[in-house]
Amino acid sequence: MTDLQQRDRRHLWHPYTQHGTETAPVAIVRAKAASLFDAQGREILDLISSWWTCVHGHAHPALNEALCTQAGQLEHVMFAGFTHPRAVELAEVLLDKLGDRFDRVFYSDNGSTANEVALKMAYQYWRNRGEAGRNLFLCFEGDYHGDTLGAMSVSKGSGFFTLFEDLMCAAKTIPFPATFIGDETIAAREQAALAQLETILEAHRGQIAAVILEPLLQGAAGIRVCRPEYLRAVTERVRSHGVLVIFDEVATGFGRTGKMFAFEHIGLAPDIICLSKGLTSGYMPLAVTAVSEALFAQFSGPDFTKALAHGHSFTGNPLACAVALRSLQLFDEEDTMHRVQEIQQRHLALVPTLKAHPRIEKIRVLGSILAFDLKGGRAGYKSSESLFLRDWYLSHGLNIRPYGKTIYLMPPYCITDTQLDRAYEGMLAGLEALDSSQGGS
Ligand SMILES: Cc1ncc(COP(=O)(O)O)c(C=O)c1O
Q1: Is the same domain home to 289 and 171?
Q2: Could you tell me the strand order of the sheet in which 272-275 lies?
Q3: Angle at CA 371, nearest 5°, toward 324 and 275?
Q4: CATH code of residue 165
Q5: Is-catalytic flag, 248?
Q6: In degrees, to the nearest 5, what angle opens at C-alpha 98 toward C-alphas 92 and 99?
Q7: Which residues pair with 31 in a beta bridge?
Q8: Which of 109, 112, 256, 279 most suits a substitution to test ligand 1, by most atoms within 8 Å of the C-beta?
Q9: Rounded CA gap, 87 and 81, in Å?
Q10: Is 16 one of the annotated active-site residues of the chain?
Q11: Which of 52, 109, 145, 161 is the pocket-test mutation for ligand 1 (most atoms within 8 Å of CB)?
């Protein structure tokens, strides 16, 4: 163990980490594009974009410059009673990309808080309109919306938070018919799921504040995907009951699914959208909860009573806004979405090889995302197989972190074709190593 790792071990408490069993964390001292480098100069391909954040890759010169320039002008100012150019410019550019349905941006710091804000907005929206009986939230089973209390409440089905259930607000799950390439049962499963949704909507008429959904892609549940047809049908049915629709696009936003936002796949925008992760391309903690003018108008009044009582010390931080603004400009300047399409094509070209593999099933490709399950694999979040593979991949210079039996790639869009080939090769070689370790042929 290096000196840094020893000092880390002495003083730090890492996220989602069992310190009783985990090996020492890898110390990264430098990063560039799709690569991380440790102190010895060893390269690790960041194939999950550092928790799906750095969409343009690490240390992009334009983002570095935007950050440095902003630091020289204004590093921070409180955001109640004050504003600044980058916050306004970012809101304008982002709203332009989000389209007609959105007019207002509320800033916060991360995906959990973006969702927390959305839930509070939805809850208060009904109260401000005089409908105090709407206390219930719906979400997909398996959804993960973050680690704060409200976000955990609508992430019950993720399996992470059973311990905290007594603390949670009222939430119910609706089915998420996960699908994959070649799935022949999906249409029937979707029909059954929609019938179940209808029953829930009827049973709780007038009680539901909002439905919050991970649209098309459930990340933490194991990179599960549903069809756009299903998401569209759910959105329409929920709307027909007068319930607000929140899309948590924390993971799907900014090109991940092949479109700038996942809602574009269904041609229907939600009432509230939550964004983070790719917003600053992994540079700074920043999140957005965006709504329409009509929704915003419900919070206005002659005194504070109807105002949204929510804010953070770092709301609208200028450094974060400056990088986010520059990151959005890069999408146009570098034709980033074209590269996402190319990555999707390369993933699709690999599908026949994956299909022919004896250990692989349930292959999914969605934009820059490639995922599959291990046949007969164990589902637990940190199953022995997933830990073996994670460590094997890392020792071979690949940051691939399987979820239970699911192996996936979610690379920065700047990844080169050569690097992608290395990723595919390594990913499959890891499965051979797993087989050997389990005494297979
Ligand atoms: C869909 C989704 N929502 C919310 C979150 C929580 O975001 P954060 O970790 O920034 O709080 C995540 C994180 O992975 C996510 O994938």
Answers
A1: yes
A2: 104-108, 287-291, 272-275, 244-248, 208-213, 136-140, 171-174
A3: 25
A4: 3.40.640.10
A5: yes
A6: 95
A7: 36
A8: 112
A9: 13
A10: yes
A11: 145
Q: Which domain range does residue 39 map to?
A: 3-56+335-437
Phi and psi angles of residue 86, each rounded to the nearest 5 degrees, phi first: -65, -35
Question: In the listed set 288, 310, 332, which residue is the last one of a domain according to the structure?
Answer: 332
- Ligand 1 center–CA 246 separation, angstroms: 14
426/379 same-domain check: yes
List pocket residues of ligand 1, CB cut-off 6 Å. 110-112, 115, 144-146, 214, 219-220, 248, 250-251, 276
From the list 107, 144, 393, 408, the catalytic residue is: 144
Q: What distance in Å separates the CA atoms of residue 36 and residue 29, rounded to the nearest whole number?
A: 8
CATH number at residue 413: 3.90.1150.10
323 and 250, same domain (yes or no)? yes
Domain stops at, among 332, 351, 376: 332
Phi, psi at residue 240, to the nearest 5°? -65, -20
Same domain flag for 281 and 315: yes
Q: Are residues 252 and 382 in the same domain?
A: no
- Per-residue tens of pLDDT for the chain, all 441 residues: 899 999 999 999 999 999 999 889 999 999 999 999 999 999 999 999 999 999 999 999 999 999 999 999 999 999 999 999 999 999 999 999 999 999 999 999 999 999 999 999 999 999 999 999 999 999 999 999 999 999 999 998 778 899 999 999 999 999 999 999 999 999 999 999 999 999 999 999 999 999 999 999 999 999 999 999 999 999 999 999 999 999 999 999 999 999 999 999 999 999 999 999 999 999 999 999 999 999 999 999 999 999 999 999 999 999 999 999 999 999 999 999 999 999 999 999 999 999 999 999 999 999 999 999 999 877 676 788 999 999 999 999 999 999 999 999 999 999 999 999 999 999 999 999 999 998 764
Q: Tell the residue nearest (CA) to atom 3 of ligand 1.
A: 145
The reply to whether 51 and 102 lie within a common domain is: no
User: Which of these is catalytic: 277, 362, 382, 405?
Assistant: 277
Do 251 and 122 fall into the same domain?
A: yes
277 is a catalytic site residue? yes
Domain count, the chain: 2
Q: How is residue 185 annotated by DSSP?
A: S
Rounded distance between C-alpha atoms, residue 414 and residue 4, angstroms: 30
Same domain, 88 and 227: yes
